[in-house]
């Protein structure tokens, strides 16, 4: 069984939103589906931008210190493993708060991450917003995003358990294959001497 660290990045500016609830459900269903593919998800560690979002607009000025909460959030998002990014649709795309946060990363800031995107939306015409906007942003930052984004319309909220479970089962084989490959070829992991157990410097 391949064990993979998991981070859930919630992009809604409102604490306790329905989108945040769907995000948690998605990680739960992915954990079940990936277990059948030989991948165990650790965690998840949750980065909720509703908790740290008030200070993010100040980061338009690089002279403003990040603060410990934001620094910890960036560390969690950047670590190798599975990164699940969930956002409501605001004016046809992901939230500005999510954009502000991800703008703090360097161009290759998500290298080593397998990214899964999900977006909720009110209109059917926004069904493709995740693949049109969120997924390219994650790959631009260096993540591997091997499967289409999950999209859930408000009219489907009553059916969230079934929708999320079906999506997770469909894409778990592809996600599992990529997660195992990256985990076993993680060149950033320190080498351990087979006899002494010492780590290479």
Automatic annotation (TrEMBL):
Keyword Oxidoreductase on entry: yes
Domain of life: Bacteria
Key words of the record: Flavoprotein, FMN, Oxidoreductase
Location of the NADPH-dependent FMN reductase-like domain: 8-147
Coiled-coil region list: none
GO molecular function, one term: oxidoreductase activity
Any Pfam family matching the protein: FMN_red
Protein name: FMN reductase
Native source organism of the sequence: Micromonospora rifamycinica
């Amino acid at each position: 069984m391949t064990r993979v660290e998991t981070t859930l990045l919630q992009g809604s500016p409102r604490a306790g939103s329905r989108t945040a609830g769907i995000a948690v459900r998605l990680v739960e269903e992915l954990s079940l589906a990936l277990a059948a593919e030989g991948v165990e998800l650790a965690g998840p560690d949750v980065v909720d931008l509703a908790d740290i979002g008030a200070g993010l607009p100040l980061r338009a000025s690089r002279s403003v210190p990040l603060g410990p909460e934001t620094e910890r959030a960036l560390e969690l998002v950047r670590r190798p493993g599975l990164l699940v990014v969930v956002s409501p649709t605001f004016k046809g795309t992901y939230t500005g708060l999510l954009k502000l946060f991800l703008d703090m990363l360097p161009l290759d800031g998500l290298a080593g991450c397998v990214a899964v995107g999900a977006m909720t939306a009110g209109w059917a015409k926004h069904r493709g917003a995740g693949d049109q906007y969120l997924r390219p942003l994650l790959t631009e930052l260096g993540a591997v995003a091997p499967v289409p984004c999950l999209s859930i319309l408000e009219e489907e909220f009553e059916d969230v358990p079934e929708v999320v479970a079906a999506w997770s089962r469909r894409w778990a084989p592809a996600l599992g294959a990529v997660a195992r490959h990256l985990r076993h070829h993680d060149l950033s992991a320190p080498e351990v001497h087979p006899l002494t157990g010492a780590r290479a410097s």
